[in-house]
Amino acid sequence: MNDIFELIEFIQFAADEEVPIRKYIRDNTNPMEVYTPLEFYGRYRFTKEIVRDKLMPMINIQDRRNNRGLPIPPLFQLLTLLRFYGTSNFQIVNGDLRQIHQSTVSRIITRLSKIMASNSKNHVHFPKNLDDWKVVQDKFYKMYKMPGIGGCIDCTHIKIQNPGGQDSEVFRNRKGYFSLNVQMNTNDE
Description:
Blueprint (H helix, E strand, L loop, with lengths): L1 H15 L14 H4 L2 H8 L3 H12 L14 H14 L3 H8 L3 H18 L10 H15 L6 E9 L19 E8 L3
Antiparallel strand pairs: 1-2
Helix pairs in contact: 5-7, 6-7
């Protein structure tokens, strides 16, 4: 019988507590309008024109705004993805920029990454003949003075064991494990 009285007392106590009002705060300023072209490029690694004319049509997601919750406009979803890719920040940090929960950022990244990957064959390709390879190699040489380079891959961290010694901490990366920062280039000659 005491259990019932304790339950009633708990329910009365809970009913007396003030329920916090849920606030929906989201910055709706449009980065396409707010940032200068250079600021925009620095944050998203693409120009406004590329985002508007190429990437938005590529992802082709509908703006499904309704009275339920606080839906995220397609442009903001794309910019969340680009910011994540461009800065290598954690999802929670990207979400904090627009008051979006980390799990929502994760769903945006997963969904839009799959869409982008499925369209990559239409936009990402290597040169198809020797003349095209020569043009790419000439551009690399003009820009970076690297002869015979036809392509490269961005750096990646390869996990290694602690090398020991007094300089071992030099090999610890920002994520806390020991690694080598490796870049590979391809040269078909």
